């Protein structure tokens, strides 16, 4: 077994710093997301971006397109860019930019940490909050100060380690329903993450430490469908809300338009968005946010040993909507919020 030292969170922050102005933008976005998720702000949260980032320049181009659109729709939507750098694998495969930044199986995590941190900083500097999935709890301290919205994936929703992590994270975090479609595992995750915990973790100097958390009041459920089928319909949302209400959690959810809700057909994300928009326009307030997988170019591609042979701005993991489809989807959601304000009623 080989062991290679990694930088401490403190050392990485010094090497790839966040300016005071950018740090303030991160905090402002967190506060705005909290208000939206709690129902104190009637805007819809929208987390949109690539399934995973493999090409940093293409991700920056995406951010440069998304930022002005987000600003144009800011009265109705609170837009956060999906910047996922860790990818859970069912068996084997590319684990994401953080683990393998050169896409060649070299697994240079030192380079991946610097690359991921610089990517997050670059997106923030382009005017957008960052959303990401927290997969490896030991690496969360290296990046968490840059993140305005976090997610725990379906494969780790039941993990006590991840629930403990969420309880100490300083931003709203969504916990997805299980891969089988079961929602109770996510509800249980929200209950656990909202409570204080004491657990082993990593301190700012990279040492193993005993960590005490206060609980995350803004943990919530993300409905992403599963083997049992989609769960973005009104009845499924009502069931999730009732489960949350029963345990004293905020009765609002985020809906992931991809994964099981689109039957893994990226184009069907448009159908999910259209249906959600129709209900929001009629007054629905139970859906606090929507997640959309989107990149510059529609579809997906396989990794290639020859980078020049790859399509710039196209996903290498799940297939995504293209940019033009993304624009239309976001305008549809903004129009729905406007219609709800004009005449919608409570859920």
From TrEMBL:
It comes from the Bacteria. Transmembrane segments: none annotated. It comes from Rhodococcoides corynebacterioides. GO terms for molecular function: 3-deoxy-7-phosphoheptulonate synthase activity. It holds the Pfam family DAHP_synth_1. Its EC number is 2.5.1.54. Keywords: Amino-acid biosynthesis, Aromatic amino acid biosynthesis, Transferase. Stereospecific condensation of phosphoenolpyruvate (PEP) and D-erythrose-4-phosphate (E4P) giving rise to 3-deoxy-D-arabino-heptulosonate-7-phosphate (DAHP). It catalyses: D-erythrose 4-phosphate + phosphoenolpyruvate + H2O = 7-phospho-2-dehydro-3-deoxy-D-arabino-heptonate + phosphate. InterPro entries: Aldolase_TIM (IPR013785), DAHP1/KDSA (IPR006218), DAHP_synth_1 (IPR006219). It is an enzyme of class 2 (transferase). Belongs to the class-I DAHP synthase family. This is Phospho-2-dehydro-3-deoxyheptonate aldolase. Residues 35-328 form the DAHP synthetase I/KDSA domain. The keyword rRNA-binding does not apply.
